[in-house]
Amino acid sequence: MSNTQFKTTPNGVLTGTLRVPGDKSMSHRSIMLGSLAEGVTSVKGFLNGEDCIATMNAFRNMGVEIEEKSPTELVIHGVGMHGLQEPKAELDMGNSGTAMRLLTGLLAGQSFDATMIGDESLSGRPMNRIIKPLSMMGAKIESEQGGRPPLRIRGIHGIREGHALKGIHYDLPIASAQVKSAVLLAGLFADGETSVTEPGVTRDHTERMLRGFGYDVETSGDKGQYISLKGGAKLIACDIDIPADISSAAFFMVGASIAEGSDLTLQHVGVNPTRTGVIDILKLMGADITLSNQQEVGGEPVADIRIRSAQLKGIHIPEELVPLAIDEFPVIFVAAACAEGETVLSGAEELRVKESDRIQVMADGLTSCGIDCEVQPDGIIIQGGQLTSGDIESHHDHRISMAFAIAGLRATGEILINDAANVDTSFPGFVELASAVGLGVSRVS
Ligand code: S3P
User: According to the model, what pLDDT value does residue 445 have?
Assistant: First the structure.
């Protein structure tokens, strides 16, 4: 793999308005549910990044016609719940854990065999977390040693429609939307009821989008932690309007907070309450963030977010906010590095099994930029200080690269970020969009 590098220059000020690309979680789900629906689903605001393209290609390889009217507008010709065809080759899910885990749930209920592979990072990620509950439902899944990809999913031959698997109740041992979604999606093909209880609230896009496609999903508990559905019903095509991804917006929330003189508005951002932990955490740190134009679009709350620079202070991050900000910690660590005092994160061991070990990789990068960090098994303690120039190993993790591009705003010199090509998995056009609002970042190779 060639080494794409980013280089930052200090002292940027972020101003103006910006719409970041579409939500990654919703984009994956729009392809999956649109493909299985009856009728034609049109999608606006699709994230044309490598992760979601991997999902799109997988469904094309299973016989679904997906037209690209523009990079962000799709028309999906649904084949119905039992219309997928056996793929002729292995399905390559690239860097995407979401694609592989959710698709395993769907493939578990098909009548054909399929194999899914991934890149080096995905090939090292744990899959037992989905293999275990799906096997309890009757799925036949083979993996490499230790539950790592490739995954080979054996079809259930001679199935009666809607009865391929058996419904179960599963108590999720970790707060994971991917595990919850894999079980619920398999539940579409199961006999009877499938239900899960989650130990903490996780993103609920699967539940919301299933309802948008006319599928009954029940939730109860004051925070919606018990979720159930019955197998064997249909999905009916619908129109989907995907808002901007709060996980991509988060880089600019931190950037505009730490760069003195900034005043930036992020347009049409998805503010589903299961995703807004980053706003809560930054506000606790003293950030100046206001929401306006709040509305509901296609069953998902959306708002414009205005951020003005503010002096941040270190905090103890409340553990219940961890699953609600799970993808935003790399850039929250940059906010902590620029804050006055100490920031403490605990209860976040999941960060160690993301696209990289985000606790260790961020600690190494921040240390190389002169920041004091103490790594803990389930978190980190960061002392706010002065970022210096640095040389960062991103470990091919998109969010590490973008976090250090933002750190460049407050560094005393240039930060060089290695292996930044994977930024295209979630945020195509990052360098151009970020430069347009005042971030000093360029691609050097
Ligand atoms: C996602 C769930 C989260 C998140 C990932 C996207 C999803 O993973 O980190 O980027 O779309 O369901 P976990 O469920 O493993 O926490």
Answer: 76
- Residue 162: is its pLDDT beyond 70? no
Tell whether ligand 1 has an atom less than 6 A from the beta carbon of residue 177. Answer: yes
- Which residue in the list 327, 397, 419, 424 is annotated as catalytic? 327
Q: What is the largest CA-CA distance in the chain?
A: 65
**Which positions ≥6 away from 227 have C-beta within 8 Å?**
180, 184, 195, 196, 197, 198, 207, 217, 218, 219
In angstroms, what is the span from residue 340 Cα to ligand 1's centroid?
31
Averaged pLDDT for residues 295-318: 97
Question: Whole-model pTM above 0.85?
Answer: yes
Is the pLDDT at 161 greater than 60? The verdict is: no
Pick the CATH number of 6-22+244-443 from 3.20.20.80, 1.10.287.70, 3.90.740.10, 3.65.10.10: 3.65.10.10
User: What is 24-241's CATH number?
Assistant: 3.65.10.10
What value does the mean pLDDT take over residues 182-209?
Answer: 97
Tell me what pLDDT residue 160 has: 55
150 prior amide bond cis, ω within 30 = yes
Q: CATH 3.65.10.10 occupies which residues in the chain? A: 6-22+244-443, 24-241
Q: Where are the beta strands (DSSP E) in 250-341?
A: 263-270, 288-297, 300-308
